[in-house]
Description:
- It is a single chain.
- The chain is α/β, with parallel strands linked by helices and about 170 residues long.
- The protein has a single domain (about 10-165), classed as 3-Layer(aba) Sandwich (Rossmann fold), CATH 3.40.50.
- The chain contains six helices and six strands.
- It has a six-stranded parallel β-sheet with strand order 1-6-5-2-3-4, with helices on both faces.
- The structure holds magnesium ion (MG).
- Magnesium ion (MG) binds near residues 33, 37, 116 and 118.
Amino acid sequence: MRNRKVPDLILERVWQINETVLSQLNIKALILDVDNTLSVHGAPIPAGEVVPWMQKMNEIKVPLIILSNNTQKRVQPFAKRLNLEFVHFAIKPLPGGFKRAARLLKLPPEQIGVVGDQIFTDILGGNLAGMKTILVMPLGESGTRFIKFKRYFEKKYINLYYKNKRDE
Length: 168
Ligand SMILES: [Mg+2]
């Protein structure tokens, strides 16, 4: 059986997700992590090409929703700035937040892509919820010590992803 900690796809940045990627994975909507995926950890401003990429997703009618383990205080102003619906304090990888986001998107889980920078929250949770999963590389280096601690254990699953690709 497939390892639930291995993503369907690894990209450097969220804004590399385009129509080709979406159609290859049969994704109709995206659930987006905030910290280190859309912005540097804790930063109020979206990073790099996030805003034009979101406009592109809007043009091709791909709904986006934010799903974050962070607090309402952190997530709400960020989501509002981007004019997105959000679920905060999601307790990823537990399924509750993913289910709530899927209800808001009104799509079955297999048509939803989860994008995030952490294997043990975003990727594990998305896979457990029956969604497609895209791992991106963390923005910035300002993560907490706990995140850095987890990165060490994530390497194994990133290597497994590339091994599976080679074996395909
Ligand atoms: Mg994150």
